[in-house]
Specification:
The chain has about 220 residues and is an alpha/beta fold. Helix content is about 40%, strand content about 20%. A hairpin with a 2-residue loop joins strand 1 (about 10-15) and strand 2 (about 15-20). Helix 1 (about 35-45) runs parallel beside helix 3, helix 3 packs parallel to helix 4 and helix 5 packs across helix 6. The mean pLDDT is about 90.
Amino acid sequence: MTSEPLPVVLTERRDGVLIVTLNRPDKLNALNRQMLGLLSDAFETAQGPEVRAVLLAGTGRAFSAGADVKEMAAMAAGEPVPHGRPGITLGSVLAMIPALPKPVVAAVGGVAVGGGFGLALACDLVVASREATFGLPEIRIGRAPGGLIPYLARHVGAKVAFDLAATGRTIDAAEALGYGMISRMVPPEKVIDEALTVASLLAGYASDAMAEIKALIGAPAAHG
């Protein structure tokens, strides 16, 4: 008897923390339309009162290698793509994270590039492995990283954002920490535990106060 394959996004609830895990390890958790739909579902679930914080992670050696290039090529060629949902895009999923009135903690254990980097940047806190890498490589294939740039510029300012987007270079966790892109850098084996500890701590605080903190940080005045 063959077992059913696991969903491409896994969810688990531990007390007040909703753990959302990207689960395409053989594809470095590349974001396809099915995964985006399930991420959207997970963030909708997080709106419920029983969820007080979210932990976003990835299985295998990558957090996420960004958009599924093979699926993008199929769409460009006019081929049907399974599991797609109207209106759900990477941009719409990213926008759900800062809009959620609850803390979202990313646990980045490896590669986070392109849309995967965008997911991490959209989160409120990022716990990263000291072996993690980050970047926006889209320029190398003749594309601008579009909607990801505002999330990057919000963290690092215009000049560093231009450097990373226009060169497509990859940076390590230490450099990302220096720029303020990540919150904490830990040994690889401690990423999930540390991120869960942080998420559980945040889940224990007053939800109204946490929502106010997110709203104030996201307000235009907070960014000059």
